[in-house]
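Bug #2210: token dump truncated for Cytochrome P450 2J5?
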Amino acid sequence: MVSGTVVALAGVLAGLVYFTFLRKPKWKNAPPGPRGLPLLGNIFQMDKFQHVTFCKWAKEFGPLIRVKFASLNMIVVSDYKMAKEMFSHSSFSGRMDFTPFDLILDGKLHGIINTEGEHWEELRRFTLRQLRDFGFGKGSMQDSIMLEVNELIDLIKENGEKPVDNIKQRLLLAVVNSLWAICTGIRHKQNDKQLLGMSEKANKAFDGVVEGGSVILFVRWLIYAFPKWTGYDKIKVALVDLADYMRKPIIDHKKTRQDDFDRDFTDAFLKEIAKTTDPNSAFMGKLGEDNLVTTLGDLYLAGTDTTATTLSWMILYLSKFPEIQKKFQQEIESVTGNTRPISVSDRPNMPYTEALIAETLRFSSIAPIGVQHRALKDEMYKGYLIPKDTVITANLYHIHFDPKVWTDPENFRPDRFLSPDGKIFKKHDALIPFSTGRRQCLGETLARDSIFLFSTNMAQRFDITFDKNGPENGFECELSFLLKPKRFNVIFKDRLA
Ligand code: HEM
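Reproduced locally. Full output below:
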């Protein structure tokens, strides 16, 4: 009798032969890149943190390199001008195929992050417009963020001067709440067990992919051949949980919504579904509802951990660089007299704060290789023919640490974003933490407002010191999709009591 292992191995071999020899892309003059193994390409040359390897190759081979992961061809761009040019081009605005990670799990793609073409454009345009209407960049958004900021400040005050070891988790809930208020009208309690449990499970499952060297992202058939070994079984459970969680508010909204008044994003989306008759539309019938489930999931996944992680880094930096914290607090006091909270309208008068946020986004580079794009058709770039389906990765980490672009990039120095007299904040074209071009982050306004309001109001209220009795990891990162700080403890001392 032929054993299951032999069948699986035969399948693996057949897969390798098919993908390597029968589906050769039509590279003509490919950009330079590292030599790899026959069939497998560069898979086993990757560090656990992929950006580390991409940065090493950028130094060796230049700003545009070609990498191969079995049958998958990738271009890695490590120059900000090239990243801007490529990502502004419609031919490079596709998305790498993430079908196995889609929330609906019916073999198709839904929502914004994973889709491309007309459905992506329709959903992205609608979501941007609605989120703007419901508050992005407006006073109402500020009100809902400030509600969370004040609650967080009260919680920290209650804790007294005991070390806080879970600031990231507290920030996460606060950030989820301000986003969820616009999306679904729901506000969670600080210790909401269901929400925390789901976030933890999803994070663990996805982090498992990274621990496995992200191989399954690039060599897809491994997922189907070895769902347990690759950790895909666990990811599926997390995806089903997440989809169920997103379905709940939709079911409630369907029962209570009224056509003449949209309470939030979910109401507006349901109304769009109800009025859509075009069978090709992303809002049509069942597809429309699946797109709503996934779009809520996208906003949750892309919008919460990212912002909370950036804020955690900022708290760590402030606790490690007390002189920078002092300058930050002095600017806050000079603008508000510490007699009122800071509001978004203070921003133009706070160049040091803007510089500190810019340096935090650069130095943490939490999404070090962004999200992979795909060439929608054969396209020439810089004299190279980039074949359709090539995956394109922007090496944001290298772009933010390139010594040709930044002076002393390894130092945390907000002053680099200031005029010599320190009075004017200077933007830098090479700072692109939200990526660039047609798929640039859709939540940048909300992320920037949240980072500004949380950090300024917390620093106005507290002196933040690093707890020397807690873990000391320098600025090391956890192994995860995002670059997250390893555990650290900080002490908050009330300065306005
Ligand atoms: C500090 C916080 C954040 C960072 C650093 C960040 C970074 C990014 C990056 C690098 C991308 C990939 C863009 C590309 O494909 O080239 C992205 C996409 C995206 N982000 Fe963010 N993001 C943040 C916060 C948010 C927030 C708050 C939201 C929503 C409320 C959000 C929603 C999205 C969505 C929906 C996409 C997919 C866009 C598309 O495919 O068209 N992000 N983000």
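Output looks complete on our side. The longest helix spans residues 232-256. Marking as cannot-reproduce; reopen if the truncation happens again.
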